[in-house]
């Protein structure tokens, strides 16, 4: 009997110590029926946060050492969609909620005419710089880094599939850059890929592309015969020095665009697709990036580890689901268990 009492007492003490000790950071992209949550539920979430007197903080405020107390939370939006201006901005003004946008600056446009002509993103149009400026001037929106183009690259010679226009049209520009050509992509191999800022890439030898294609045409037979496939001879792995140079260029282009239009040096970066490695974290640190935002679920401590800020995301979330995640991410012990099992 005494053991049970001890266990219950320890559990209550642990709960009390760790409850409301975490700092929840959430990741959204768009607010609509197909995305993270819809407009109605998002408004309900903001209303709930206001009623319960939560304080929303931004990446820039954290970078500048704002004190994170038990009522602080952070809402982030990645990529930079027009949806953020049309649907999110009116609501955050209504509830005076602060958000952070991590933008792909190469996709942000100058004016409506250019946006109308941006056929590559016609299903999910991006923001204009003037809309971003208006949001920034409200004092509610912090703009930060997410690379210029949200590109992936190949990271090993392990083949995954073969390029077809039908399947890969959405990422056509990305593949054109990787293959160094605009035509005759059909049948080229797609190797294992990760976000382009995550680790050194597998760079194809463009002179060997046609030879590679011929070999790939036999790919299905080889696969059927279960033979070990090695395509390393058709390219090489990028050196750490080249990798670092590339990241420096990517981040600096992203920073220059933000600085040009908004007038400050952004120092917080969200990894595209959440992909990163020890190498990329080190490179980011060495070039002065202060906060690195991941897609790892779970709680952050209130003394935030800026090298690895956890962000929980949603899929058609309701207020009920949001509350549940909020509860878990504020309790560092329950949140940790949630992180392990999810
Ligand atoms: Zn993204």
Give a description of the structure.
It is built from 14 helices and 14 strands. The protein is α/β, with parallel strands linked by helices and 342 residues long. The protein folds into two domains: 18-149 and 247-341, Alpha-Beta Barrel (TIM Barrel), CATH 3.20.20; 152-195 and 202-237, no CATH class. The strands form five sheets. Strands 2, 3, 4, 5, 6 and 14 form a six-stranded parallel sheet that branches. Strand 3, helix 3 (59-63) and strand 4 form a beta-alpha-beta unit. Helix 2 (39-51) packs parallel to helix 4, helix 11 (240-262) crosses helix 12 and helix 13 (319-330) packs across helix 14. It is globular. The mean pLDDT is 91. It binds zinc ion.
Name the ligand types. zinc ion
Classify the beta-strand content into a percent band: 15-25%
How much is the radius of gyration in Å? 23 Å
Which architecture name of the largest domain does CATH use? Answer: Alpha-Beta Barrel
Secondary-structure element series: HEEHEHEHEHHEEHHEEHHEHEHEEEHH
Shape: globular
Provide the CATH top-level class of the largest domain.
Alpha Beta
| Helical residues, percent | 40-55%
Name of the CATH homologous superfamily of the largest domain: Glycoside hydrolase/deacetylase
Helix count? 14
Question: Which segments are poorly predicted (pLDDT under 50) over 5 or more consecutive residues?
Answer: none
Structural class: alpha/beta
Number of domains: 2
Task: Give the termini separation.
Answer: 35 Å
Mean pLDDT: 91
Which sheet architecture does the biggest sheet show?
6 strands, parallel
Total beta strand runs: 14
Q: Say what the CATH topology of the largest domain is.
A: TIM Barrel
């Amino acid at each position: 009997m005494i053991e049970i009492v001890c266990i219950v007492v320890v559990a209550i003490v642990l709960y009390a110590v760790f409850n409301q000790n975490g700092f929840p950071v959430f990741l959204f992209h768009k607010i609509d029926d197909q995305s993270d949550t819809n407009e109605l539920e998002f408004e309900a979430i903001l209303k709930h946060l206001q009623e319960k007197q939560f304080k929303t903080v931004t990446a820039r405020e954290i970078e500048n050492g704002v004190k994170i107390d038990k009522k602080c939370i952070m809402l982030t939006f990645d990529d930079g969609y027009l949806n953020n201006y049309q649907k999110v901005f009116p609501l955050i003004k209504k509830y005076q909620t602060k958000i952070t946008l991590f933008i792909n600056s190469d996709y942000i446009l100058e004016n409506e005419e250019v946006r109308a002509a941006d056929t590559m993103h016609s299903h999910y149009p991006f923001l204009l710089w003037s809309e971003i400026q208006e949001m920034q001037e409200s004092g509610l929106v912090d703009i930060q880094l997410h690379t210029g183009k949200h590109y992936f690259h190949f990271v090993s010679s392990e083949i995954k599939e073969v390029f077809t226009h039908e399947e890969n049209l959405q990422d056509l520009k990305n593949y054109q850059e990787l293959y160094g050509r605009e035509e005759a992509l059909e049948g080229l191999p797609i190797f294992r890929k990760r976000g382009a800022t995550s680790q050194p890439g597998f760079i194809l030898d463009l002179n060997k592309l046609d030879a590679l294609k011929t070999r790939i045409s036999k790919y299905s037979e080889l696969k059927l015969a279960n033979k070990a496939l090695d395509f390393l001879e058709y390219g090489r792995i990028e050196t750490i020095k080249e990798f670092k140079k590339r990241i420096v260029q990517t981040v600096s282009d992203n920073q220059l665009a933000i600085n040009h239009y908004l007038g400050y040096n952004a120092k917080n970066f969200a990894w595209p697709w959440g992909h990163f490695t020890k190498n990329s974290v080190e490179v980011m640190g060495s070039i002065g990036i202060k906060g690195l935002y991941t897609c790892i679920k779970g709680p952050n401590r209130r003394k935030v580890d800026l090298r690895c800020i956890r962000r929980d995301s949603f899929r058609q979330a309701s207020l009920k689901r949001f509350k549940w995640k909020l509860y878990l991410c504020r309790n560092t012990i329950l949140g940790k268990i949630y992180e392990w099992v999810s």
